[in-house]
Structure formats: structure tokens, C-alpha cells
Amino acid sequence: MDLHGFLKALARRWPTVAVCLLLAIGAAFAATALSTPVYEARTQLFVATRTGDDTTQLNQGQSFSQARVQSYAAIVTTRQVTASVVKKLHLRTTPEELASRIGANAPLNTVLIDITVRDTVPRRAARIANAVAERFRDVVERLETPRRAAGSERYGKDSSRRGGTLGSPVSLGVTQEAVPPAAPVSPRPVLNLTAGALAGLLLGAALVAVCENLDTTLKTSEALGEFTALPGLGSIPYDKNAPKQPLVSADAHSKRAEAFRKLRTNLQFAQVDDRPRIIAVTSSVPGEGKTNTAVNLALSLAEAGVSVCLVDADLRRPCVASTFGLVQDAGLTTVLIGQARIEDVLQEGGGPLAVLTSGAVPPNPTELLASARMREVLRELADSYEVVIVDTAPLLPVADTVGLASLTQGALLVVRAARTSRDQIRLAAESLERVGVRALGTVFNMAPAPKGDRYSEYGRYGELPAPRASTPRGGAGAPPAARGVGGS
């Protein structure tokens, strides 16, 4: 998935990113609110060398202090310092725990040592910092004080009285005493919320990437065209009103109606040399909109003046009769078992459109649809109508369509956007190929609607004047009926 595809996936799955962002910010806010404020007190010491007034000695002493100061900083958190501070201030903690709250830093090329102490009480943090600095100074000066050799102690009474030690070559002075801090250093609300927002965005982007990699459905007609070698004959936009108004004739100027006109035209140009007259409309699995596609394709052809017969051959879940509000009990199955002739059960669907409903649902639909009688019925309808549209059952769940499709002259495969998986499309196309059915192309159904109304800017472009009420259908004022699939 390239960057452009990833950005489109982010835009399509923005609710996932938004949820992750809100959860991360909420977690950061809760962590901030529940955290105990921590204050930091700071003190600073200066390391000096005891030398004379000679400039050379001063420079040597400065170099000596800079060389030692890094080692001194490591002594701040030792037990020699912390144990004494705990005892002196009567702290309810251990030297090791106190050491974890003490920090020491010696900036490079300086003789300064910065000591910080963190505590939940501002005053106590300052007291501990000053006590640590005082104890640290004593420890360093004691460690730097050299001892005389044992044999030399008898030559100096003063030295023996001092315990046999010389003075320390360094001295530590406090340049800045610790004061109670005014504001806590932790938690930091702005930093926490910013980090939470960033973590939420990264988590959302990661989830989108994972979902896109695991999601094998197709989101655009371009992706469908890249996946399958079948030509894409049409892309039907999603319409939330379609369940209530399945027929595009209810709004002839909608985007959905125009999409079916394009499907009709593309079907015409795709099969110029050998136009099929018996066309099966099928899908991989249920719920992809094959019946709606078959019905509205038949209406679109009839709108262009083509005589069309729509056959409901989905004997598992027939829906054509309910879509048009027709009688379902007498229809295809009635003809197949010899209880009626075709002309006896045909019903009008409007204009030059005739509808052969399914009839009663049989116990053996696969055998009926693959029978020789079914072939005869289709041929009789093809002799009477220019185009026969056959609504069939889905390919993968049942075997009905595999046997029926071989009796037709071509098949349209309906694919639902963001619903049909790549494996389902591949298996459906292979099923048609195995029985020698010519796959005319795909119809990408319930596709994301294009932004804006591309037709409104032209008005009702190409709209023909409405026929006068006094002009009879097919009369002198009517346009001549176009012949063949997709005539216009």
C-alpha cells in the first residue's frame, strides 16, 4: 500500500483514528489527574582548590578541580551521604530510596555540581537538598584529606593530635541554597496530553494499516479492475433511499439512475460484434444487490425502447415480484412443471418490460434450472423479446446458477463495494469459467457516492421534454424504439 492509498484509507477509516485519539487523550488526562504532584529542589556547590597566590598553582588547582568534579558527582547518591541525611532529618524512608530521588550533575569544563532532590512536599524537598549538600561536602573533603605515613607521626606532636591527617586540598562551597519550589515538575499536563494525542494518532494509523492489510474487500471500481481481468461495465453509487425506492424510475434524474444508464450503454459497446440476448445477473454471495441490479438494468433498457423480459430465476430467495408489487405464486416454476404457458403467467413491469416472476419455491431448484425445459423457456423468451435479463441465485452458496448460467449467452457479476472479498470474486469468476459461461463484465454496486452533484451544474443535461398527456404511447409523437442492448 503506497502513501496515497494509505491516506485514502485514513480518510475512509477516520472514526477508528478518532476513537484511538480520544481514548489516548482520555488516558493521558486520567493519568495526569491521578498522579501525585512531585516537586524538585535544587542546590549548587562550587569546588575550589586550596593553593597559594601563585598563578601557576591557581591554574593547576583549576585543572585538578575539573578533573575531580565528575567523580565527586557520583558520590552524592552513595550511602555515606544518604544514610546520614535520613538519620539527621528523621525521614521515613531508606537510604536507597532516598538515593533514587537525588540527582547530581557536573557540567563539563566547570567546577560546579548541581544537586536536585524530588519529593511530594516542597519544604521537605528543599530541606533534603540542603542536608545532602552539607553532608556531601563533608564526605568529599574527608575523602580528599591525605593521611601521613605511620612512621612520620612521631616527629610532630601537633599532627598526632589531629589524628595523623593533613588538610584537604579541595573545599566545597554552596553557591545556591535550595528553596521550596513553587510549582511541581510532575505531572506535566500539556506534555502528557500532547504525548497522549501523538500516541493516539500513531495507534489509529497502525490500526488502519493492519485493518487495510487484513481487509481483502475492494473499495473502488479501479481496485476491482486491477484485481480481475473482467471489464468493469458500471459503478452504481450507494443510495440510502434504495431499500425504500428500489426502482430508479422513481427518480429518473438521480445519480443512481444515471449510473444504470451508463451500465446499459457500456454493455452495448462492450459487445458490439456479438450482443448477448439472454443475460444472467449474479453475484458471489447474498446481499450484494444482484436483484436490484437486474431489475434496474431491465428498466433502463426498457426506458431506451428495448423490449425486455425480466426473469426471476432465484428460486431460493425470489425478490422480483415484491420489488414490482406483482403476484409471485404463478411464474417460472409453474411453466417449468407444465402447469401454465409462458404468456399466461407473464406480468407487466411498465412499458416494454415484461416480468416472469419465480412462481412457487420448489424443493429441487438446481434440477429445474439446469433442465432442458429451462433452456426451451429461455429460447422462447428470446424469440419474443430483444433482451432477456435473468436474475439468478448467488454463485458460491448454491449450485443453481452454475447449471443455469450455461444456458445463457453471458453473465454480469455484481460486486458490492467494501463487502465482497477478493477470494469470493475469484471463486465466482472461476465458477463461470468452468462451465464455459462468457463473463460480460462486473458491476461495482453500492460504491461510495461521488462528492457533489456532477449533473446539477449542467441543469438536467440531455433531459428530453416530457411527453404531452394527449400523446398516446407509441403514437406519432413518440421517438422510435432503439434496437439491441443499450439502444439510446
UniProtKB/TrEMBL annotation:
Organism of derivation: Streptomyces gibsoniae
Origin organism lineage: Bacteria, Bacillati, Actinomycetota, Actinomycetes, Kitasatosporales
InterPro entries found in the cross-reference section: AAA_dom, Bact_polysacc_biosynth/exp, LPS_length_determ_N, P-loop_NTPase, Wzc-like_C
Catalytic activity entry: L-tyrosyl-[protein] + ATP = O-phospho-L-tyrosyl-[protein] + ADP + H(+)
Biased composition annotated in UniProt, kind: Basic and acidic residues: 148-161
Major localization listed first in the record, in broad terms: membrane
The protein's name: non-specific protein-tyrosine kinase
Top EC group: transferase
Polysaccharide chain length determinant N-terminal domain mapped to chain residues: 1-89
Pfam families per the UniProt record, alphabetical: AAA_31, Wzz
Superkingdom of origin: Bacteria
Gene Ontology molecular function, alphabetical: non-membrane spanning protein tyrosine kinase activity
Membrane topology value: Multi-pass membrane protein
Residue span(s) of domain AAA: 277-405
EC number: 2.7.10.2
Locations listed in the record: Cell inner membrane
The UniProt record lists the keyword Chloroplast: no
Family to which this protein belongs: Belongs to the CpsC/CapA family. Belongs to the CpsD/CapB family.
Segments for region (Disordered): 148-172, 455-488
Compositionally biased intervals (Low complexity): 465-488
Keyword tags: ATP-binding, Cell inner membrane, Cell membrane, Kinase, Membrane, Nucleotide-binding, Signal, Transferase, Transmembrane, Transmembrane helix, Tyrosine-protein kinase
Signal peptide location: 1-30
